[in-house]
Design a protein that fits this description.
Two copies of one chain form a homodimer. The first copy, chain A, is of the alpha/beta class and about 325 residues long. Chain A has two domains: about 220 residues, Rossmann fold; about 90 residues, 3-Layer(aba) Sandwich (Rossmann fold). Chain A contains 14 helices and ten strands. In chain A, the strands form two sheets. Chain A has a six-stranded mixed beta sheet, sandwiched between helices. Chain A has a four-stranded parallel beta sheet with strand order 5-4-3-6, sandwiched between helices. In chain A, helix 6 links the parallel strand 4 and strand 5. The longest helix of chain A is centred in the middle third of the chain and has 20 residues. Chain A is globular. At the A-B interface, helix 2, helix 12 and helix 14 of A face helix 2, helix 12 and helix 14 of B.
Chain lengths: ~325, ~325
């Protein structure tokens, strides 16, 4: 089970390897929001998202034998890149299983981090079956994107840093809003803050139409999304909260916040203008909630969880939401 | 005279007020450059540029009487915003003298930081005469953009941070490339590194056609630019190196590097893709030199000195230089 001890163990394995990302803020952003907003800029993390932390935590926790054989992940996005670079730095072989129609730049980036990319046809092939065969034939260890205690522990190091940085900024009492997909980042942060900053309470943010976590927190059981794609915030769209993550979310987080796609894109433009960081749509939902929802306290800390966004989309956002 | 002691004094006045900006790097950027590149991300500084440091240093060094009367700066850009926020936080009145045709967003931002903006007509009015009258009538202290010992001392705190961060990253020997206008940032960094990291040698970067510093370093005397406007890198275009800064540059820096406007814009796109930071053209010339010049060592540290860029220009850069 994921616990504070696992997170602190991950923090010591990540020390000197993951980047301590800054907690940013800006007076003009606060003025627009009508409250104090602090942004944990995980888009500045290695590989452009917090996923590097979970990848490093998982790879560094393997036995030497497991590491020599290598790791496997299913992902076309941030998790792939995070695991690939973590494996590269550990000298561990890494296989990433990606749909053949994944964007070319994501395939190229994952390869650039040294991973072997195996492509499959979404329409005709079964990803899990291919993965199981690969894992068995080569002895690879599967690193799941969120429902894995070591991955959650790695993401929880974001929470340890927020606790320290909030204290340095004199913040004892605030809402922390996370960009929430399967709940790995959120559950890790919630466990870390429960122990180290009990005045910081966690709420989740999700895109409208893909609010499985908000509905699950409301009903008390794991709800599923009707669709599994179709949001511009694709990086955080998952079918439902995880088996391991949901009990933690249920105990420590909520109620869930929901933002429109346009609000997420508008938050990207605000982060550009006022914080000078590049945030992807799924990584901007927490800032969007902090800016545009009203039932929030005077001080809000939010994660900007990733910055891997196509230049064309970013240019379009700047053009549409110039302010 | 500016000295290490002044920089260290500025550092203690800035502690807890200026942001310790991260030193960023990315494996994929290194691969493109063919060398190790580290970026001191001053675009993440308060007000979006290193100018806040010099502003804070100068305002905090005033006597209580001077501070009560207030400060004056001539600027339509980063220096204006840096001085305005520093004055606001010190409770000091602040007057910024700007040309009436300055971009509306810059006027609005400077006002949002609490400054009184006085507009003048570039064609018919004499800025220095208006400033002198304002200063005399109201007892304001003029804060120059670079030729001021306290301003240089504030910018020099960037160098103190680079010395520490380079040591943490195991870098003992490197070239540090600065985005150089009048030389305030460059001379401050050079003095700090001379004392704290003698293996880090400073070179300047400038846009082609506005390479007064490179030519001055080559000739040994202060050369002037033929034109004073017309570069997309407007934030760092100055007529010539400063009286105070040039002797420091001459003793410690060079040879100067020159990049084309297109190289600066391409560096902005690379910073977007690989570092997820927003850099303005003038703030990207050092990264451009680090990426595209060949006579450089294995490890280069460069300043990304500001991130105040119009959304339309940034969108255009992403569209033109998508990679």
């Amino acid at each position: 089970m994921t616990s504070l001890a696992l997170i602190e163990g991950a923090a010591s394995r990540l020390a000197g390897h993951a980047r301590l990302t800054p907690l940013l803020n800006a007076p003009l952003l606060d003025r627009i929001a009508g409250r104090r907003i602090f942004v944990k800029a995980e888009c500045l993390q290695w590989t452009g998202s917090f996923k590097f932390r979970g990848g490093w935590s998982a790879v560094s926790a393997l036995t030497p034998q497991q590491r020599t054989k290598g790791v496997l992940a299913y992902s076309s996005g941030n998790h792939a890149q995070g695991v690939a670079l973590a494996a590269l730095r550990h000298g561990a072989p890494c296989v990433i299983l990606m749909p053949a129609d994944a964007p070319a730049v994501k395939i190229a980036n994952t390869r650039a981090y040294g991973a072997e990319v195996v492509l499959y046809d979404r329409a005709t092939q079964d990803r899990d079956a291919i993965g199981a065969t690969l894992a068995q034939d080569r002895g690879l260890t599967l690193i799941k994107p969120f429902d894995d205690a070591m991955v959650i522990a790695g993401q929880g190091t974001v929470g340890l840093e927020i606790a320290v940085q909030a204290a340095e900024a004199g913040i004892a009492d605030a809402t922390v809003i996370t960009c929430c997909g399967g709940g790995g980042l959120t559950s890790g942060i919630a466990l870390a803050l429960e122990a180290h900053a009990p005045g910081l309470r966690v709420r989740t943010a999700e895109p409208a139409g893909f609010d499985d976590v908000a509905r699950s927190l409301a009903s008390g059981v794991r709800e599923r999304n009707a669709a599994t794609s179709g949001s511009v915030c694709d990086a955080i769209v998952t079918p439902s909260p995880g088996e391991i993550t949901f009990p933690i979310l249920k105990r420590l987080c909520g109620p869930g916040l929901v933002v429109s796609d346009d609000e997420a894109l508008r938050a990207m433009a605000l982060a550009f203008h006022h914080l000078r960081i590049v945030v992807e749509p799924g990584g901007a939902v927490a800032l969007a909630a902090a800016m545009f929802r009203s039932d929030l306290p005077e001080t809000v800390i939010c994660t900007a969880s990733g910055g891997n966004v196509d230049a064309a989309l970013f240019a379009d956002v700047l053009t549409r939401f110039e302010s």
